[in-house]
Sequence to fold (419 residues):
Amino acid sequence: MRRQLAAVVGGVLLALASRPTPRADAIDVSLAGRPLELTGWVLLRQTIKTDEATPSERTLEQLWLRSKYSPAPWLSLDATINFQNGGPATKETRFGLYSYRAVFQSVSPAVIFEEAFAEIALGATEVRVGMQKFAWGKLDRVQAVDVLNVERYSDPFLLDEDERKIGVPAIQGSQSLPTAEWMPEEARLTIAWIPQYFPYWFPLPGERWYPPAGTPPTTFSVPALMTTVPVGFQVVNSPAPGFQLGNSGYAARASAFAAGVDYALYYYHGFDNRPAFRLTAEAAGEPLPAPPFVADVSATTRLSPVFRKIDLWGADAAYAWGDFTIRAELAFVSGRPFSRDIRFLISSPSQLAPAIEAALREIARGNSPTPVALPPAFAGSAGLHGVVQYFWPVISSPFPSTICRQSTTSPSQSSAASQ
Fold:
């Protein structure tokens, strides 16, 4: 059934992609006398392996569809959906919808609801309610202050920034401040409330973009037994934070223009958008009446996500200086967990000797399996994050690109950039 569905989806995408001009097209129609805009684009990506050691990846097929309807001059309804098949998801466990409550998952073919929101525009006031993506910050690839959306890490390098983002349910309000002598130009205040946290999506072990640092060794030396024991490994989803007021996030952005500088100040409180994990281990074996008192010892490690709240204070600025454009971002983050290399957590027998001896004593008493205390897989701290970029003027070519990926702007990019 899954293969048949994948074949049907792939056939439809291939037929759509065979059009002579690979670009996003918009169809303007009317519904009940009001404008309805329909936009769509197709992506086909084939990966050619030059090294057999590279993990496999299937042909990626994506169909993005976006609709925008304005039932009233002050109201618009916007929705974006993504049909996807193949790509790095080679360990797919099912097909259908991606879950917004699980981190480790591989779904193909898949349907992803990217955005769905209503926007109210009343003069200098704008309100957006629904599932949406934010585009805060002024840099192109790494934004220190853009933390309201988590990302999908199944394809972290070949997807655009907005395509990697996962829409979150939010209420966003923006107000352009009135002009005054003491007020800078284009002053604007934006406040956002995120009532429900959606976790990031992470690939499964064995898929192309699962990081080697997330896989512990397969064996471990136990000096007390004068042997090595096999170490199994599993990834386990932890329950995501539930829907309650204490788990909601909120953010504010104040922007303005003065002395040729376009700048903004930021604050965010809520769950971190970066991944962090906890590694746990347990040992099992058979008790013996005589030394070494245990036999057939093995170990199992489990990697599970953790969700921590952070506080972020940040700023960004952009300034045009002759032929240069200088853009910068700076953020101070408190409470962010920084993940460690999992491979080194269980690689030192001397460091783990007390925990291993305690586990062996429990096995000898007949308590099998028993947990093994490991060092923390992450460290929480406060840190300063800053990025500066310098840009030459961009020269545009009048000739259309022949690569679909480079010549196409996704519907969700247009939506996020409008914020």
Residues 1-23, 389-419 have pLDDT under 50 and may be disordered. The first helix runs from residue 2 to 17. DSSP finds five helices and 19 strands in the chain.
